[in-house]
Amino acid sequence: MDSIVALAKRRGFIFQSSEIYGGFNGFFDYGPLGSELKKNIRDCWWNDMVRRREDIVGLESSIIMHPKVWEASGHVAGFTDPLVDCKVSKQRFRADQLFFAPVVVDGSTVGYVSALESERTTEALQEAAETFKRKKAIQGALAPVQPRDFTEAKPEEIALIPSPATGEPGSLTEPRAFNMMFETHVGPMRDSASVAYLRPETAQGMFVDFRNVVDTGRVKLPFGIAQIGKSFRNEITPRNFIFRSREFEQMEMEYFIHPDADWLACHEEWLKWCREWLLSIGLPESHLSLHEHPKAKLAFYSRRTVDIMFRYPFGVQELWGIAARSDYDLQQHQKFSGVPQVYFDEATKQKVVPHVIEPAVGVDRILLAVLCAGYAEEDVKDDKGNVEKRTVLRLSPRVAPIKVAVLPLLKNKEALVARARELHARLKRRHAVFYDEAGAIGRRYRRQDEIGTPWCVTIDFDTIEKDGTFTLRERDSMQQRRVTEAELIALLDEKVY
Question: Which listed CATH number (3.40.1190.10, 3.30.420.40, 3.30.70.2190, 3.30.930.10) goes with 2-78+181-371?
């Protein structure tokens, strides 16, 4: 993971927000290549989700909405995470990400150990238990640890569990509910009447505008409303680079279906669509898996929720959630606003409150998954047979920040430079193209490999003196072949869609 973070900084994908002031935890800036990559992911999703379908329309709702929106949705009262404070270090932890285990020797509990959640939580607790036993000079057989998260700790255990910050027991507080909504004020006065919130999700904007879309969009059930936009959550412990941050971007769609429709079949269709879309942008099937939420842990309004999981370097984590949300949201907004949230069914001549299937995914999480899946280091031989390390990002042409690099073989040959500039200007009208004339051609190839450029086109003397073709180098295979300008344009049109 460290290599990916370093590459992201070195090549201008992602910077720490406010870095010159020491950074601001949970916030990130996207550099020239990162912003292009992020835009491409958004565009691919929007084109496939909205423009290439006849049953989905787009929306862009405001970040700050009437505070009653969040009362109706349940966010004001219940959008919380369990918070634990360390009274000594003043650090804060999410209780469900803080794990502990009793140290059991010969069947008796002799103490407790703790560790923060990671891909090796159990191993870390076992190592801590062995260290505890050794330092206390306790004799006997150590039992395997049984991890539990801090929300399961009994009051009498809390005083005995060591803080992961200090290693000493007695400094952790009992878990308390922490609302993750970012509160602000609207208007000239700062009082209870001016309280508003930065939205923690984009979904509610689509529910609130449901009637407006029905009345103006000539839509018929089933239909969807899609949106891409920023959301804000005051995470207790932002972690794993951009995976969990306080400011992030979501791509969500609410698919409205008739109450009598086969919701399970619809849910399965969207689960399949989402998985196939992830494959279309280059994520390997080997890194994807499904996690179905147990019925006992579903939100009370949910009929079914399945997460598409991705294998990140820090463990398998949720990437895309597909939830069957019933009619809860529309019913709540109808109740709180007093405005009917209904659809007139022409077939039955009845007004119904539709049910909803919601595929919701974070742009930042997908971007991180794309970087992790594409990153590779490999040994290759140069023209002289010397072995060197090649860093490469195998990004799909659909999302790669730069689609093709145009390289004149030599920068001091006017004819080569002029032809390269001409081709570069022509390709730029349709694609993100990079022009590079600095350094040896092999070094230029390596630079483009590292930022994920699928193809490099070299303008050489054969281009000028013979048939006008270019040398096309493919990033993944590093193979080269001669192509015409028409063949190059056709290749880009086929692969970049």
Answer: 3.30.930.10
